[in-house]
Amino acid sequence: MQNINLYKQPNQWICLFATPWRGELSTIESHILHHPNGQVYLGRASGFGTPYQVMMRRYYHHNKWRALGFGKPTLDKYAFGVSGRYAIRGREQQLIDFYGGIGSPKVANLIRGVSRYNVAGRGFHQLSNSYFGNIAPYTGF
Amino acid sequence: MVIKYKMMQENRFNEISFLKEWTIEILDFFLKIESQQEWFFKEYIKQVLVAYEKCDFRGIKCAFNDVNDAAFDLDSKQYKELNHILYLKFGISLDNQNKKIIKKIKTILKRGHIKNIDEYRLVSERVERIYADDDKKEEVETLNNLLADFETKHKPNNDQ
Questions:
Q1: Least CB-CB distance to B131: which of A61, A110, A115?
Q2: Among the ranges given (A1-5, B24-28, B111-115), the one the predictor scored with the smallest mean pLDDT
Q3: Do the domain assignments include residue B66?
Q4: Which among A26, A64, A120 has CB closest to B151?
Q5: Structural domain containing residue A32
Q6: CB A58 within 8 A of CB B131
Q7: Does B43 touch chain A (CB under 8 A)?
Q8: Which of A2, A106, B80, B90 is least surrounded by CB atoms within 10 angstroms?
Q9: Interface pTM (ipTM) of the complex?
Q10: Domain ends where: B63, B91, B119?
Q11: In terms of CA atoms, which chain A residue is nearest residue B130?
Q12: Do B83 and B122 belong together in one domain?
Protein backbone atom coordinates (compact mmCIF):
# COMPACT_ATOMS: atom_id res chain seq x y z
CA MET A 1 0.00 0.00 0.00
CA GLN A 2 1.24 3.46 -0.85
CA ASN A 3 1.86 6.10 1.77
CA ILE A 4 -0.63 8.83 2.33
CA ASN A 5 0.94 12.12 3.25
CA LEU A 6 -0.94 14.98 4.78
CA TYR A 7 0.58 18.41 4.49
CA LYS A 8 -1.00 21.28 6.30
CA GLN A 9 -1.18 24.77 4.90
CA PRO A 10 -2.58 27.64 6.97
CA ASN A 11 -6.04 27.42 5.48
CA GLN A 12 -6.33 23.92 4.17
CA TRP A 13 -5.25 20.30 4.31
CA ILE A 14 -3.82 18.76 1.21
CA CYS A 15 -3.94 15.02 0.85
CA LEU A 16 -1.14 13.71 -1.30
CA PHE A 17 -1.07 10.09 -2.41
CA ALA A 18 1.74 8.04 -3.78
CA THR A 19 5.08 9.08 -2.40
CA PRO A 20 7.11 10.40 -4.15
CA TRP A 21 4.90 12.51 -6.36
CA ARG A 22 5.82 14.86 -9.13
CA GLY A 23 3.20 17.32 -10.08
CA GLU A 24 2.57 20.94 -10.68
CA LEU A 25 2.71 21.89 -7.02
CA SER A 26 6.16 22.97 -5.98
CA THR A 27 7.22 22.47 -2.37
CA ILE A 28 9.39 24.97 -0.54
CA GLU A 29 11.10 24.17 2.73
CA SER A 30 13.60 25.60 5.20
CA HIS A 31 16.30 23.43 6.72
CA ILE A 32 19.23 23.41 9.11
CA LEU A 33 22.60 21.75 8.54
CA HIS A 34 24.63 20.97 11.66
CA HIS A 35 28.38 20.90 12.13
CA PRO A 36 29.93 18.80 14.90
CA ASN A 37 31.49 22.03 16.29
CA GLY A 38 28.01 23.43 16.92
CA GLN A 39 27.79 25.72 13.90
CA VAL A 40 24.67 25.70 11.78
CA TYR A 41 23.92 26.53 8.14
CA LEU A 42 20.39 27.74 7.51
CA GLY A 43 18.96 27.22 4.04
CA ARG A 44 15.85 26.78 1.96
CA ALA A 45 15.02 24.81 -1.15
CA SER A 46 12.14 24.34 -3.52
CA GLY A 47 11.25 21.58 -5.89
CA PHE A 48 8.94 18.67 -6.52
CA GLY A 49 8.51 15.89 -4.03
CA THR A 50 7.89 15.62 -0.33
CA PRO A 51 9.51 18.33 1.82
CA TYR A 52 12.02 15.75 3.04
CA GLN A 53 12.90 14.70 -0.50
CA VAL A 54 13.36 18.33 -1.53
CA MET A 55 15.64 18.93 1.45
CA MET A 56 17.75 15.82 0.84
CA ARG A 57 18.10 16.59 -2.87
CA ARG A 58 19.27 20.10 -1.99
CA TYR A 59 21.62 18.73 0.67
CA TYR A 60 23.19 16.43 -1.89
CA HIS A 61 24.04 19.52 -3.97
CA HIS A 62 25.39 21.54 -1.02
CA ASN A 63 28.89 20.40 -2.04
CA LYS A 64 30.81 23.00 -0.07
CA TRP A 65 28.89 22.59 3.18
CA ARG A 66 29.08 18.82 2.99
CA ALA A 67 32.83 19.03 2.35
CA LEU A 68 33.17 21.29 5.38
CA GLY A 69 31.52 18.67 7.55
CA PHE A 70 27.98 20.03 7.74
CA GLY A 71 25.53 17.19 7.99
CA LYS A 72 22.45 16.02 9.82
CA PRO A 73 20.07 18.02 7.62
CA THR A 74 17.00 18.85 9.69
CA LEU A 75 13.74 19.84 8.09
CA ASP A 76 12.43 23.02 9.68
CA LYS A 77 9.20 24.15 7.96
CA TYR A 78 7.57 23.74 4.58
CA ALA A 79 4.84 25.39 2.54
CA PHE A 80 3.35 25.61 -0.93
CA GLY A 81 2.39 28.30 -3.41
CA VAL A 82 3.57 31.86 -3.83
CA SER A 83 2.64 32.98 -0.30
CA GLY A 84 4.27 29.85 1.08
CA ARG A 85 7.43 30.70 -0.80
CA TYR A 86 7.50 34.17 0.72
CA ALA A 87 6.71 32.79 4.19
CA ILE A 88 9.73 30.48 3.89
CA ARG A 89 11.89 33.43 2.78
CA GLY A 90 10.91 35.15 6.02
CA ARG A 91 11.44 31.96 7.98
CA GLU A 92 14.97 31.49 6.64
CA GLN A 93 15.90 35.00 7.78
CA GLN A 94 14.27 34.44 11.17
CA LEU A 95 16.25 31.21 11.57
CA ILE A 96 19.49 33.08 10.79
CA ASP A 97 18.58 35.76 13.34
CA PHE A 98 17.46 33.16 15.87
CA TYR A 99 20.95 31.62 15.84
CA GLY A 100 22.63 35.02 16.23
CA GLY A 101 22.58 36.53 12.74
CA ILE A 102 25.19 36.75 10.00
CA GLY A 103 28.65 37.09 11.53
CA SER A 104 27.72 35.15 14.66
CA PRO A 105 30.21 32.32 15.38
CA LYS A 106 27.25 29.96 15.50
CA VAL A 107 26.04 30.80 11.96
CA ALA A 108 27.94 29.62 8.87
CA ASN A 109 25.85 31.57 6.33
CA LEU A 110 27.73 34.36 4.59
CA ILE A 111 24.84 36.64 3.67
CA ARG A 112 21.34 37.36 4.89
CA GLY A 113 18.46 35.26 3.59
CA VAL A 114 16.51 38.46 2.88
CA SER A 115 18.44 41.59 1.95
CA ARG A 116 18.03 44.50 4.36
CA TYR A 117 17.10 46.58 1.32
CA ASN A 118 14.29 44.28 0.24
CA VAL A 119 11.11 46.37 0.30
CA ALA A 120 9.10 43.27 1.18
CA GLY A 121 11.39 42.15 4.00
CA ARG A 122 8.95 43.12 6.74
CA GLY A 123 6.11 41.49 4.81
CA PHE A 124 8.08 38.21 4.50
CA HIS A 125 8.72 38.39 8.25
CA GLN A 126 5.03 38.93 9.08
CA LEU A 127 3.91 36.25 6.65
CA SER A 128 6.33 33.81 8.26
CA ASN A 129 4.89 34.73 11.66
CA SER A 130 1.38 33.96 10.44
CA TYR A 131 2.43 30.63 8.92
CA PHE A 132 4.88 29.32 11.49
CA GLY A 133 4.95 31.65 14.50
CA ASN A 134 7.69 34.11 15.41
CA ILE A 135 11.15 32.99 16.50
CA ALA A 136 13.19 36.19 16.05
CA PRO A 137 12.60 39.95 15.77
CA TYR A 138 12.66 41.74 12.42
CA THR A 139 16.18 42.86 11.49
CA GLY A 140 15.73 44.59 8.12
CA PHE A 141 15.35 48.31 7.41
CA MET B 1 28.48 66.21 -20.50
CA VAL B 2 25.25 67.70 -19.10
CA ILE B 3 23.22 66.14 -21.92
CA LYS B 4 24.83 62.76 -21.29
CA TYR B 5 24.01 63.03 -17.57
CA LYS B 6 20.39 63.99 -18.36
CA MET B 7 20.07 61.02 -20.71
CA MET B 8 21.43 58.72 -18.04
CA GLN B 9 18.93 60.13 -15.53
CA GLU B 10 16.11 59.65 -18.03
CA ASN B 11 17.16 56.04 -18.73
CA ARG B 12 17.30 55.39 -15.02
CA PHE B 13 13.82 56.84 -14.57
CA ASN B 14 12.45 54.76 -17.45
CA GLU B 15 14.04 51.64 -16.00
CA ILE B 16 12.70 52.17 -12.48
CA SER B 17 9.23 52.92 -13.90
CA PHE B 18 9.33 49.69 -15.89
CA LEU B 19 10.50 47.67 -12.86
CA LYS B 20 7.68 49.15 -10.74
CA GLU B 21 4.97 48.48 -13.36
CA TRP B 22 6.19 44.96 -14.05
CA THR B 23 6.46 44.07 -10.36
CA ILE B 24 3.00 45.41 -9.55
CA GLU B 25 1.44 43.57 -12.50
CA ILE B 26 2.83 40.27 -11.20
CA LEU B 27 1.82 41.06 -7.62
CA ASP B 28 -1.72 41.82 -8.84
CA PHE B 29 -1.77 38.40 -10.46
CA PHE B 30 -0.54 36.74 -7.25
CA LEU B 31 -3.22 38.61 -5.34
CA LYS B 32 -5.83 37.21 -7.71
CA ILE B 33 -4.71 33.58 -7.37
CA GLU B 34 -3.92 33.65 -3.63
CA SER B 35 -6.53 36.00 -2.28
CA GLN B 36 -6.35 34.41 1.19
CA GLN B 37 -3.11 36.38 1.70
CA GLU B 38 -4.58 39.61 0.36
CA TRP B 39 -3.06 41.71 3.17
CA PHE B 40 0.44 40.55 2.28
CA PHE B 41 0.24 41.27 -1.45
CA LYS B 42 -1.48 44.63 -0.89
CA GLU B 43 1.27 45.60 1.55
CA TYR B 44 3.90 44.40 -0.93
CA ILE B 45 2.38 46.61 -3.66
CA LYS B 46 2.30 49.54 -1.23
CA GLN B 47 6.00 49.08 -0.40
CA VAL B 48 6.90 48.94 -4.11
CA LEU B 49 5.07 52.25 -4.63
CA VAL B 50 6.84 53.80 -1.62
CA ALA B 51 10.20 52.64 -3.00
CA TYR B 52 9.26 54.13 -6.38
CA GLU B 53 8.40 57.48 -4.79
CA LYS B 54 11.78 57.46 -3.06
CA CYS B 55 13.53 56.42 -6.29
CA ASP B 56 14.87 53.45 -4.32
CA PHE B 57 16.29 51.59 -7.30
CA ARG B 58 17.87 48.85 -5.23
CA GLY B 59 14.67 48.17 -3.29
CA ILE B 60 12.56 47.92 -6.43
CA LYS B 61 15.14 45.72 -8.12
CA CYS B 62 14.97 43.32 -5.13
CA ALA B 63 11.18 43.16 -5.46
CA PHE B 64 11.43 42.72 -9.23
CA ASN B 65 13.81 39.75 -8.84
CA ASP B 66 11.65 38.24 -6.09
CA VAL B 67 8.39 38.34 -8.03
CA ASN B 68 10.04 36.94 -11.16
CA ASP B 69 11.49 34.09 -9.13
CA ALA B 70 8.14 33.34 -7.54
CA ALA B 71 6.42 33.46 -10.95
CA PHE B 72 8.70 30.69 -12.25
CA ASP B 73 7.22 28.45 -9.54
CA LEU B 74 3.64 28.88 -10.74
CA ASP B 75 1.92 25.90 -12.28
CA SER B 76 2.01 25.82 -16.07
CA LYS B 77 -1.54 27.12 -16.54
CA GLN B 78 -1.02 30.11 -14.27
CA TYR B 79 2.42 30.73 -15.73
CA LYS B 80 0.98 30.89 -19.24
CA GLU B 81 -1.83 33.17 -18.10
CA LEU B 82 0.60 35.56 -16.40
CA ASN B 83 2.95 35.47 -19.38
CA HIS B 84 0.06 36.43 -21.63
CA ILE B 85 -0.89 39.38 -19.39
CA LEU B 86 2.72 40.59 -19.28
CA TYR B 87 3.16 40.20 -23.00
CA LEU B 88 0.01 42.20 -23.74
CA LYS B 89 1.08 45.02 -21.42
CA PHE B 90 4.85 45.14 -21.94
CA GLY B 91 5.47 43.29 -25.19
CA ILE B 92 7.81 40.91 -23.35
CA SER B 93 7.26 37.89 -21.14
CA LEU B 94 8.84 36.10 -18.20
CA ASP B 95 10.79 34.02 -20.68
CA ASN B 96 12.54 37.19 -21.84
CA GLN B 97 13.45 37.96 -18.22
CA ASN B 98 14.74 34.42 -17.81
CA LYS B 99 16.94 34.87 -20.87
CA LYS B 100 18.35 38.07 -19.36
CA ILE B 101 19.22 36.20 -16.15
CA ILE B 102 20.93 33.44 -18.13
CA LYS B 103 22.88 36.08 -20.05
CA LYS B 104 24.08 37.65 -16.78
CA ILE B 105 25.03 34.21 -15.46
CA LYS B 106 27.00 33.53 -18.64
CA THR B 107 28.88 36.82 -18.16
CA ILE B 108 29.79 35.79 -14.60
CA LEU B 109 30.85 32.32 -15.80
CA LYS B 110 33.01 33.86 -18.52
CA ARG B 111 34.60 36.23 -16.01
CA GLY B 112 35.28 33.30 -13.69
CA HIS B 113 34.36 34.98 -10.42
CA ILE B 114 31.47 36.65 -8.59
CA LYS B 115 32.02 40.38 -8.07
CA ASN B 116 29.55 41.33 -5.36
CA ILE B 117 26.68 40.21 -3.16
CA ASP B 118 24.04 41.01 -5.78
CA GLU B 119 25.76 38.63 -8.19
CA TYR B 120 26.16 36.13 -5.36
CA ARG B 121 22.38 36.21 -4.80
CA LEU B 122 21.74 35.90 -8.54
CA VAL B 123 23.98 32.83 -8.83
CA SER B 124 22.50 31.29 -5.65
CA GLU B 125 18.99 31.71 -7.03
CA ARG B 126 20.07 30.15 -10.32
CA VAL B 127 21.52 27.13 -8.48
CA GLU B 128 18.34 26.93 -6.44
CA ARG B 129 16.33 26.80 -9.65
CA ILE B 130 18.35 24.18 -11.54
CA TYR B 131 20.04 22.00 -8.90
CA ALA B 132 17.56 19.15 -9.38
CA ASP B 133 17.84 19.16 -13.18
CA ASP B 134 20.08 16.28 -14.25
CA ASP B 135 20.82 17.99 -17.57
CA LYS B 136 22.35 20.95 -15.73
CA LYS B 137 24.67 19.04 -13.38
CA GLU B 138 27.76 20.58 -14.91
CA GLU B 139 26.42 24.12 -14.66
CA VAL B 140 25.39 23.53 -11.03
CA GLU B 141 28.88 22.30 -10.19
CA THR B 142 30.58 25.27 -11.87
CA LEU B 143 28.24 27.76 -10.19
CA ASN B 144 28.70 26.03 -6.81
CA ASN B 145 32.46 26.45 -7.24
CA LEU B 146 32.01 30.17 -7.97
CA LEU B 147 29.84 30.53 -4.87
CA ALA B 148 32.36 28.65 -2.72
CA ASP B 149 35.20 30.80 -4.07
CA PHE B 150 33.29 33.99 -3.22
CA GLU B 151 32.48 32.65 0.25
CA THR B 152 36.12 31.93 1.07
CA LYS B 153 37.22 35.43 0.00
CA HIS B 154 34.48 37.46 1.68
CA LYS B 155 33.63 38.00 5.30
CA PRO B 156 30.08 37.46 6.50
CA ASN B 157 27.97 40.51 5.69
CA ASN B 158 24.87 41.32 7.68
CA ASP B 159 24.37 44.74 6.12
CA GLN B 160 23.06 43.69 2.71
A1: A61
A2: A1-5
A3: yes
A4: A64
A5: 25-132
A6: yes
A7: yes
A8: A2
A9: 0.86
A10: B91
A11: A47
A12: no
